[in-house]
């Protein structure tokens, strides 16, 4: 590998998994450690299609309608009176998607001569999925079925891939919660939020490999939360690394520095809290700042500020998945990532 490593968060531009993965390999192949299948089609919108499919679940009903045009226009479900929701009756669709894309991945990996490339499977945090489906109070009361269903998917995907997979746990709720906490309570909020991430990993099969995607939200290319500096992501990353369960590898932590349509700031003060980052050296730190609307010179400035704060070379990434952008914008970010890696 020449230059820095690149990290792809999840969804990629492309008509189908083969097209999305082929393009990513063509642009970034030598810099990739893992590769998602592109989460194409209805999966490009993260969990929207999952929640929409659950509206017809016999144990659920629509409590509030929404068209997903903004964060305050999202639908909400609730458990029907007299019914109980079970994890065994939930199917988020990830096993079927991997069953389809895994052969394409192995074929492309072999053709590209990238024998060490690992398949990457996105796993929405169980609490996040429960909260976006049922709302905050519903998630607190009924998280267990979402945890059980997520663990079933992890087991199933490990079976399909023979364990040649790294699971990326995706958690916007946790980072936004920490970012909104007042500074005196930030450490406590981070410790609480970290438990939802590490608890899921701890319940997964021993030997499972994980990364964590900290996120500020990216629905319709608009962020759910913003940060005045990176102290919230530092607090949460540290809390996750500190309490990570034994027997489950933590291979990377991805952190957003840009926020949807807002590129990363060039103000050094924004990055000053990175000096407090305390994750093990063996855990890759993927910096999510590659952005199509910022000049290459400013992007290099941002990269220098991040690496000076972290004290080591970082992986280059966008802040979130690229499948929700136009094809041209998504490809532009892939090409920018390649420029920053070399």
Please summarize what this structure is:
With 342 residues, the chain is of the alpha/beta class. The protein has helices at 17-28, 48-54, 94-112, 126-142, 144-161, 172-180, 186-203, 231-242, 268-271, 296-310, 327-341, and strands at residues 34-36, 60-64, 76-79, 118-124, 165-171, 209-214, 249-256, 284-288, 315-317.
3D structure, described in words:
By secondary structure, this protein is an alpha/beta fold. The chain has a single domain (17-49, 84-341), classed as TIM Barrel, CATH 3.20.20. It contains eleven helices and nine strands. It has helices at 17-28, 48-54, 94-112, 126-142, 144-161, 172-180, 186-203, 231-242, 268-271, 296-310, 327-341; strands spanning 34-36, 60-64, 76-79, 118-124, 165-171, 209-214, 249-256, 284-288, 315-317. The protein has a seven-stranded parallel β-sheet with strand order 1-4-5-6-7-8-9. A two-stranded antiparallel ribbon has the order 2-3. Helix 1 (17-28) runs parallel beside helix 11 (327-341) and helix 6 packs across helix 8 (231-242). The N and C termini lie close together (10 Å). The mean pLDDT is 96.
Strand arrangement within the widest β-sheet reads: 1-4-5-6-7-8-9
CATH architectural designation: Alpha-Beta Barrel
- Helix-and-strand structural type: alpha/beta
CATH class: Alpha Beta
Helix proportion range? 40-55%
Shape: globular
Order of helices and strands: HEHEEHEHHEHHEHEHEHEH
Find the CATH topology.
TIM Barrel
Radius of gyration equals 19 Å
Q: Could you say how many structural domains there are in total?
A: 1
Low-confidence stretches: none
How big a fraction of the residues is strand?
5-15%
Q: How far is the N terminus from the C terminus?
A: 10 Å
The beta-strand count equals 9
